[in-house]
Task: inverse folding
């Protein structure tokens, strides 16, 4: 019998696929299902983005290999970062991606050798650990929890691990726990990375869904970060372009080059009409971002208030599109998720994001407010 590579054995089907299978089975029986499992925006991109995409797909010269990002995209991305985050970037410090997950997965191949370490947050998005498996490297999870305000003490990582660590991944505002980092915390992490020659990877996918009054904190607001960090951006969450698969990573050109070299051997770039629609979004659709943020803030408030009124006092997130809900001790993450399916709501069990996720479920705010109220009623009825 022909056997697959050893690296595939730790991957398996994602929990999202598993929950989708359960949802399909329940829906086939005629049950009304409210799907709050996947963080894919339910709203459309701005109308101007859709118009550009529609027009450009009719242009006969747009169907060749893109090979790499248009220079106009790099300029639009650097301009966006300057406008939104007050970060000064040259267009050479931008690398276009087929979505940020594409970049995160291939970055491990670009930097990690077998037996290198990658420090990942626990709980954290599944690709953080999967990319290490694909590269044959080791993961060292650091616990994010309410006790450490989801900002773990990286200096407590054993010295023998730090000596073999190539990459440290952070994600603020976070997924699944929508925490925000402080400048003081980022400064400590940058200092550690500079001392040990570690590449910081800041997943900034939810930068535009920060519900506080402060501007989102980029890793590049920290002195010295350009020497040791890359920052990933996603148009999926900011402009509702999840299916279009486009994002970008910023940082020093020499730090981007290994990833660019890997990608040049794997893909042929993003479809030109998608690139041009993204250029329009980054350049002209910034007013849309305020509306998007308010929509998700309102959804958060309605959903959390509904749960609180029923007696389930979940933590109200400061950003992102998820509620990271702590369960009563009598429930496991999967046990509750299966009960939720019976009640007609699809959520993601917390253990899918790491060992620290057990005892939680992640609930995505990807439905209209009335549907979220109904989902809250159904979920609370399981417990009370």
Result:
């Amino acid at each position: 019998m022909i056997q697959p590579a050893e690296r595939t054995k730790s991957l398996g089907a994602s929990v999202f696929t598993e929950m989708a299978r359960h949802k399909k089975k329940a829906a086939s029986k005629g049950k009304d299902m409210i799907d709050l499992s996947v963080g894919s925006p339910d709203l459309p991109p701005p109308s101007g983005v859709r118009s550009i995409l529609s027009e450009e797909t009719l242009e006969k010269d747009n169907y060749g290999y893109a090979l790499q990002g248009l220079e106009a995209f790099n300029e639009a991305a650097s301009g966006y970062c300057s406008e939104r985050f007050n970060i000064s970037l040259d267009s050479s410090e931008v690398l276009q991606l087929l979505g940020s997950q594409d970049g995160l997965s291939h970055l491990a191949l670009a930097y990690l050798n077998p037996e290198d370490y990658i420090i990942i947050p626990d709980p954290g998005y599944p690709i953080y650990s999967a990319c290490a498996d694909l590269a044959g490297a080791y993961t060292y999870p650091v616990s994010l929890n309410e006790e450490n305000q989801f900002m773990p003490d990286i200096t407590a990582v054993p010295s023998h691990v730090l000596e073999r660590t190539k990459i440290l991944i952070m994600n603020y505002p976070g997924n699944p726990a929508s925490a925000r980092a402080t400048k003081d915390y980022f400064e400590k992490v940058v200092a550690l990375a500079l001392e040990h020659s570690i590449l910081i990877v800041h997943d900034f996918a939810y930068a535009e869904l920060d519900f506080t009054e402060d501007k989102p904190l980029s890793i590049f607001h920290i002195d010295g970060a350009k020497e040791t960090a890359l920052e990933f951006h996603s148009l999926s969450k900011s402009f509702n372009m999840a299916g279009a698969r486009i994002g970008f990573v910023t940082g020093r050109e020499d730090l981007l080059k290994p990833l660019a070299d890997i990608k040049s051997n794997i893909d042929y770039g993003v479809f030109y009409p998608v690139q041009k629609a993204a250029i329009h979004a980054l350049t002209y659709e910034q007013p849309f971002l305020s509306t998007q943020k308010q929509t998700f803030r309102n959804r958060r408030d309605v959903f959390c208030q509904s749960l609180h009124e029923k007696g389930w006092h979940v933590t109200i997130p400061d950003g992102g599109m998820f509620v990271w809900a702590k369960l009563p001790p009598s429930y496991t993450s999967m046990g509750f998720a299966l009960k939720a399916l019976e009640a007609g709501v699809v959520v993601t069990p917390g253990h899918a994001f790491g060992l620290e996720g057990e005892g939680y479920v992640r609930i995505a705010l990807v439905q209209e407010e009335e549907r979220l109220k109904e989902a809250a009623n159904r979920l609370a009825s399981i417990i009370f």
